[in-house]
Amino acid sequence: MMTRVRSAVSSILGGFMASGSSAHELRPDPPLRFPYSRPDFLALSPDEVECSADHVSRPILILKEMKLPWAAGYAEVINAGKSPLNEDQACCEVIELRRRPADPSSPSYTPLRRRSSLPSADLLEPIHSTEVKELNFHYWALFDGHGGSGAAVFTAKFLHLHIEEQLQEVLEILQNPSLQPPTCLGEENPIHHLHPSAGCLSRAASLRGATGAPGPTYTTPPRFFMEKKIKQESLVVGAIENAFKEMDAHIARERMLYSISGGCTALVVVYLLGKLYVANAGDSRALIIRGGEIIPVSSSFTPESERQRLQFLAHLQPSLLGNDFTHLEFPRRVTKKEVGKRMLHRDFTMNGWAYKTVQEEDLKFPLIFGEGKKARVLATIGITRGLGDHDLKVHDSDIAIKPFLSCSPEVKIYNLSEYAHGADDVMILATDGLWDVLSNQEVVEAVSCFLGNCDPDDQHRYTMAAQDLVMKARGVLRDQGWRIAGDRLGSGDDISVFIIPLMHGNSKQPQPS
């Protein structure tokens, strides 16, 4: 066991390894679900895609035309040799939500398509019906792949379609901002307090009736018929959360027929009805600059930040650890000579530390090991949320990693309509290749300084600011490697950045019919 763990720890610095049976290795490789590519909106030729993968010069790619929604800027650069291809992906769309006729007997009726039965075609079939344009949502997303680019490419092509499908189900509710979501679809007037005239009795009255004892007329609404008041924005949050789950299940189905390598984190921004919904599953990051103030709008999910969730799962299902790992955390590896001694530890119930008597089972490798960017789950992977990774296992074992990886995003809401935004107020989305070397403050200072020296009416300013930010994180190639300001080590990872001007969102006032 110790030999296997040491081998796994030494291998994780260069990537992630997934084991498979010898029978699987003898099978012919399945075809790629999608070939490697860069984001569609970059409009790169095959030659340009090939040139972009130069790990020595590391060219920074930017938009050829300023055609993204809200004049958003984008820039990216490949890693310094960490992986053969750029495993980051990006997507940007404006998607119309359309209302279908509600009467199934209508000749133009189109049944709601469930995303769980997505076709295998690259894109969904066009809808031919008497649909009427009602609402649209804007969508920006970054996907940071690992163990290959397959999952990131696949997710970039489908996640927005899953979100569309989930929003479609609640479209008629979203069209009426004053409508409180009904508990059951089809209820015209949601009932929050059941009146006696509805023919229902209190529990006490029901019991008295059952025994033949008369009871007084019921006049007060029973407490157990109360309903929670659900906000419309909660429906959007739920739609995004369900879309992530459907996307992960979609990858699981498709991988049975196609090669979809690795997994990916996902950072998504949806603009709908005056609000920005920021969904994050992984360690990419989003923040807002408003009037020079830093407003974080995402949280990073790492083995350290999710220690208690992971430990609790392992405590409930110890079989997930095989016979090789322990869910307990110690400040360092426990050695055999320390059995019987009192040593600091913590489990899923603890934020602090306490002493325990070391036992033989504590000699197992810890579920979470390492600190910062070197922290790993089961000595294998450095992220705890994302999509894909269905076949990832601990090196040279049958212990699956997937049960510990959550596809559920954290969704935060920024009410864009509550604020007036200037030309320099932006949202920045970036993969961890940027944040590994630049702090929030450094990023804000760099972007604010760059935009402050640009013409506010220049539509290229946000792409140029994104390019400048990527350049600051990548640095310059010197004898000691890539170096940034202060002669610090530059980022050797893939870097992708969106800069989204918020003032354009203020002009998109929601007007549902």
From TrEMBL:
Name of one Pfam family that matches: PP2C
Lineage, uppermost ranks: Eukaryota, Metazoa, Chordata, Craniata, Vertebrata
Entry GO CC: mitochondrion
Annotated GO MF terms: [pyruvate dehydrogenase (acetyl-transferring)]-phosphatase activity
Organism of provenance: Carassius auratus (Goldfish)
Domain PPM-type phosphatase positions: 71-502
CDD domains: PP2Cc
Gene name of this polypeptide: LOC113043015
Protein name per Swiss-Prot or TrEMBL: Protein phosphatase 1H-like
